[in-house]
Specification:
heterodimer; A: alpha/beta; two-stranded antiparallel ribbon; 15 helices; globular; B: mainly alpha; about 75% helix; flat
Chain lengths: ~425, ~90
Amino acid sequence: MSLSKNPPEPGPEGRATARLGPRPLALHLAIAMTTGAGALAALPGARAGVVAWSPDLMDEAATLLDELAGTETNLLMAAVARAQSRRLDEMISGIRAYHAHAYVRDLPEPDVLWQEGTTRLLDYGGEGPIAALFVPSLINRFYVLDITAERSLLRWLAGNGVRTLVVDWDTPDDAARDYDLDGYIGGRLERALDAVLATQDRPLALVGYCLGGNLALAAALRRSRDLVGLGLLAAPWDFHAGRGAQTELFQLMEGGLEVLLQGFGALPVDVLQALFASLDPNLAARKFRRFSRLEPDSRAAKIFVALEDWLNDGVPLAPKVARTCLVDWYGHNRPYHGDWQVCGAPVRPEGLELPAFVAIPANDRIVPPASTEALSKALPNVRVVAPNAGHIGMVVGSAGPTGLWQPLCDWLLGLAK
Amino acid sequence: MLHRASCRRAVAILAAGFKHGYSPGMKGARKLDKLADRYLDLWERQTDALASDPSGLWAFDAWMTTFSAERLRADLEERSGESVEKPSGTRS
């Protein structure tokens, strides 16, 4: 579904270039409309004091309802209905503006050092005493680490003394669709690691981001002799920390997930996007209302569009990996309980004999800080930083250079001494 | 230059308000609009909180069911009252 007036035009390789986000678009519009309708329906009850407000909203609700106390109900309902219509209009205007924005990501392509199927090892270059191989999540594309010229962690590190490389997992090819995590970690990731080791003799650190951190941890435990350090950026470990009763939902999802995987042969992108949306359902509405008020030529608008393009450029997840991540990890928290094995060996951070660097973004809604903290507490030799940012903002936000980039670079260069 | 679709949407929003006795020119309209926005912001965060806590969702569902049942009962009582108080000479 697209709000754009014109049909998608094919890109240079035949792929459609029209924007489809925020994906899934119908879900985000439905959430916005349902939230608004719910607000209207709940208003009489809210004024009567029978709404069970979330504990951290109770004081604010009480203050607001005091201010509304003398207002005639019909007038109030009309004002709320009008405001909801305006907000929906702003959201749609923001989405249209996003779809029509002229920004195109046109950074120079890094060299491809190695490739297997659709997986590529990209070399950003860099002169200096140490190399770092970045391992992104399997769910979203690697280029959040290289989002624009001004906000590229990878290019910045390459220009500041670190030979910088990254694994681009891309969409699973036919072979990778049958992989479990043993296949990814013990197979492709280690082969990529071997390719790096074969082409340069600097000391090498692995740096994993989000679920890529879990992959990097497992690989580092297996290949400690070939590495000098492990970086973990917002990597989850205690999958139940900060999730409350959401964990029940993941456990209940198991049957339905299996039906999806059998039906589609993978976990489709829009299902993954819907799962992410469930973490912060009204985020899309808020974001696009704000975007509707930005000047299209502004720097803020450009970075918004760059990030949205990345967010909506996800890839499907191989079925065995989907089961492990959603059922074993989010449902049953097996890594935290010491019950995750890769190639027959348990993955236990306590056993890592390398120095580690852990970044725990303080405002992370995707990986609650407590989840990553559990990992940092288990590692024997660790440097922890806590950037005042969210999960993605830690890497691409304006405070990225001071909150994450420089501390990570300092730690990496310190490994080379 | 105003876009025609934007004008149509703005008129629709205004008309929806007029239907319920609202006018942007009325005294206190701007303050009421701001309060309405604050309420909607608060409700957005309430639904986000419910999303992360299904136990809250079940409680909300129970409240909505009770609230809906009470509204229905009140509506039925009101309608049965109107039918009794029809003015004389009116066809039933």
